[in-house]
Automatic annotation (TrEMBL):
Name of the protein described by the UniProt record: Branched-chain-amino-acid aminotransferase
Enzyme Commission no: 2.6.1.42
UniProt function note: Acts on leucine, isoleucine and valine.
GO CC annotations on file: cytosol
Pfam families: Aminotran_4
NCBIfam families registered for this protein in UniProt: ilvE_I, PRK08320.1
Any single biological process term in GO: L-valine biosynthetic process
Species name: Pelotomaculum propionicicum
PANTHER family per record: AMINO-ACID AMINOTRANSFERASE (PTHR42743), AMINODEOXYCHORISMATE LYASE (PTHR42743:SF11)
Domain of life: Bacteria
Length: 297
């Protein structure tokens, strides 16, 4: 495995960061989880936009521009001979002293890992997930902005610990006011009377790239879509529930806190969106090897 490490491509064993890096010491930095499908990097532009916006929100200057960053991602895939992969792109505040002041970190540090994908087993897509509601509330936007995909994931990890304890693969998190926010590493959708509903980003969520792709697909298909606040009542009594995320894609959820969702089977709209999403992954995003695209045309 070859890793991009701040200007170089190095073997995995040499891909190490300093113990003085503030990404490690304070969770100070931003990252992206990205997927490559069929030789293309899905929604790469959207991922880079989110990364750079997050960096701006934490006043972190990324020392390369978006075009250069795109090339870093593509070249990491090429060096590892990968056409289908999970990509982790990380920008930390860089090396500083032991205090938390970011001004002591002169330069951000970038690394990029491309690996094969670890997914939920197929069975879970067919049967759907059973989940719980976590007692840990999602970070409030006035304290730690959930829209920034920061290296500080403790909020989500608290909820994941609850899911683990309950023997469940995911947990739903509410915001501080009790409205449904998202899952620990995925966004949430419900279907009620033919309307596809997902929480608006101001509820305090990471605005997922997969979430936005699903909203676009639904609109294209003429499915009514609403971004609005809802509570666990709406989840328990929904016709369909599913989660979206780069790693999970679209995964049905059939049991929440012991309540069966509808008849306890993944719903029709969920399947329809899964099929449309899979088609989209075949055509969206820049080619990893442009020559390949040229020879196909
Ligand atoms: N919410 C959280 C907290 C996440 O970590 C993720 C995964 N990045 C998502 C939602 C889904 O976002 P995306 O579709 O961009 O992967």
């Amino acid at each position: 495995m070859i890793i991009y490490l701040n200007g170089e491509f190095v073997p995995r064993e040499q891909a190490v960061v300093s113990v003085f890096d503030h990404g490690l010491l304070y969770g100070d930095g931003v990252f992206e989880g990205i997927r490559a499908y069929h030789g293309r990097v899905f929604k790469l532009g959207e991922h880079l936009d989110r990364l750079y916006e997050g960096a701006r929100a934490i006043d972190l200057q990324i020392p390369v521009n978006k075009e250069e960053m795109q090339e870093i991602v593509l070249e990491t895939l090429r060096r590892n001979n990968l056409r289908d992969a999970y990509i982790r792109l990380v920008v930390t505040r860089g090396v500083g002293d032991l205090g938390l002041d970011p001004r002591k970190c002169p330069k951000a540090f970038i690394f990029c890992i491309a690996a094969s994908i670890v997914l939920y087993p197929d069975e879970l897509y067919e049967k759907g997930l059973s989940v719980i509601t976590a007692s840990t509330r999602r970070n409030i936007p006035t304290a730690c902005i959930p829209r920034v995909k920061s290296l500080n994931y403790l909020n989500n990890i608290y909820a994941k610990l609850e899911a683990n304890l309950a023997g469940m693969p995911e947990a739903i998190m509410l915001n501080d006011e009790g409205y449904v926010a998202e899952a620990t590493g995925d966004n949430i959708f419900i279907v009620r009377k033919g309307v596809l509903i997902t929480p608006p980003s101001y509820v305090g969520i990471l605005e997922g790239i997969t979430r936005n792709a699903v909203l676009d697909l639904a609109r294209e298909k003429g499915i009514p879509v609403e971004e609005k606040l809802f509570t666990m009542f709406d989840v328990y009594t929904a016709d369909e529930v599913f989660f979206t995320g780069t790693a999970a894609e679209i995964i049905p959820c059939v049991n929440v806190d012991g309540r069966l969702i509808a008849d306890g089977k993944p719903g029709k709209l969920t399947w329809e969106l899964i099929a449309a999403f899979r088609e989209l992954t075949k055509v969206d995003g820049p080619l990893i090897s442009p020559a390949e695209g040229a020879s196909k045309q």
